[in-house]
Structures are given as C-alpha cells and as structure tokens.
Design a protein that fits this description.
The structure is a homodimer.
Chain A lengths: L21 H12 L4 H12 L2 E2 H8 L3 H13 L3 E6 L2 E6 L3 H17 L6 H5 L1
Antiparallel strand pairs in A: 1-3, 2-3
Chain A binds a DNA duplex (30 and 30 nucleotides) through helix 4.
DNA sequence: TAAACAATTAAACAATCGTTTAATTGTTAT
DNA sequence: ATAACAATTAAACGATTGTTTAATTGTTTA
C-alpha cells in the first residue's frame, strides 16, 4: 500500500490496489465515449431496435449522410454495431454481444430514472 | 409517422415516435460524457468507495491538484459527487442517488464483461 | 497579523471532436 | 460503357476538452 500525503484513517487495505490500474479505466472510457455525443446515443438506440440503411438513418436523424457515416464508423470500430451490404445499401444494426446488451440496459435504466415512465416509449410498453 | 426515403418494410408503428426526441438523448449524453475520460471514471470509482480530500486524490491518481479540481468540478455539476469542507480540506464522495447507483453498476458490469473475474478487485470479493 | 497549507480559478496551449463540403468508391440498371 | 444512386473518405473549419503554470481564495495555526 502506497502511503498517502494525508492520513484520514480510512482505506481498508484491500481497496488500495484498485486505485492503480489506470489502463482498465481507459478501456472503459473508450466505451463510454461513444455515448458522449447525443446523436451517437440516439443512433445506437435506433440500431438496437431496427436494421437500417444510411439514407434512412440520415432522414431519421435529420443529418447529412457523411455525418451519419462518421458516427457509424466510430460505433462500428468500438464493436457496438455491425454493417452488411445488400446491393447498393449497407444495413446497420446493434451488434449481438453482452457489452451491447449491458449498454442498452444502462441507457434504458438511466432514461427511466431521469424521465420516469416516459421518454423511451416503445421499451416501456413491453 | 414520417415517411422514410427507402421503404424496407419494417418499423412497427410504435417504434417510429421514438426516433424524434433528440433532447432526451442529449441529456443522457451529458451523463455519459463524464466517463468519456479515463481519469474521470477512475476518480468517480474511487469516490464510490471512499471519501477523500483533493491532495490524496492527486496522489492516488498521480495528477496535479488543479487537474483533479477540474474533474471534480465536472463530476459535481453533473450531480455525481458531493463535497463537504472540513477545515482546510474538502472531502469528496459519490452522491447518494439512483443515477449514481446505476452508473456504478454499469461500470462494474462492463468491467466484468471486458475483464472477467478481475480488474475491479474489491467489488468481486463481496 | 503573518505564514503555511488546501483548494479553486484563470489564462494559455495542444489535442480531439463533430460537422460541412467536395471528391471518391462501390454497386446496379440502362 | 454510362448514368444513377448509396456510401465512404478527405480536407477544412470552428468548438470543445484536458492539462499546465501561475495567481487567487479559504482556512488554520503560530
């Protein structure tokens, strides 16, 4: 255990080692960073509930397709969505992984807490 | 229901309204943004498990106190931590709210998924 | 009061981020 | 091949972010 400048008489021994693994938190932050932009959460949330092409996503989000492409690329390289080409179009949807499920549930829970009974309508109905 | 450029024959009617409430996702993104920085997640995680002064947090995180103060200010204005002055020092800890509990659990779950049985040691022992 | 320590604030800086516009690649149909 | 459409990439831009250094505000003690 590293000695701290001030001794406030707390810190059970087994908590100290926790404070040293910075890389792990960096890894987590790369996940959370995906949702630090409102448009990107919304895009992810849409793709949790349907599979769509870029043009339609642009229309839903009221954004240009390069902008959508840019966000899709980030979500994809974070492993949160997948894309499959079908003819001229590429269909995107949320990846089927435990991390994606956990993030979906976190969004739903935080939504429910900050806007009880309300903002994410389709989820509540089930 | 707004008509989309391409009709892929999906989208049950009750999913459509969901795609229009952008402000709600913006609100969520302000929460997630707090954790888009590795140092800030780590700081929050520490403060979920103990109450500490800025000097000790600086030592734990190996960062300057202005840098720590800066992150504390953000976490505080997001409602995630509280601070109380005691003499020359100010002690910070995680706020006691449902949102904080949900975020704590999300961090723990994502940690467990990406590093099974391992990285956040003290939490696993209970 | 003055000195010492804790914490915050201010100013400056490089780095990152989200969006736009324009150009490019990939695919299908004529 | 050519034209039309979907999607991505590239370059540029303003805006935001995290850190540093220096100055300032609070509080205690000598």
């Amino acid at each position: 255990m590293t000695k701290l400048p001030h001794d406030h008489g707390e810190h059970p021994e087994d908590i100290i080692p926790l404070f040293e693994n910075g890389e792990h938190f960096l890894m987590l932050s790369e996940l959370f960073r995906q949702f630090s932009d409102g448009n990107r959460i919304r895009l992810f949330w849409i793709l949790c509930h349907c599979e769509e092409c870029v043009i339609n996503l642009s229309a839903m989000m009221n954004m240009s397709s390069p902008a959508i492409s840019h966000h899709l690329k980030q979500l994809k390289s974070a492993g949160l969505i997948t894309g499959r080409r079908n003819g001229k179009e590429v269909y995107y949807r949320a990846a089927d992984t435990p991390v994606v499920k956990a993030l979906h549930d976190a969004i739903r829970e935080l939504s429910e807490l900050s806007c009880p009974g309300g903002c994410l309508i389709p989820e509540e109905k089930k």
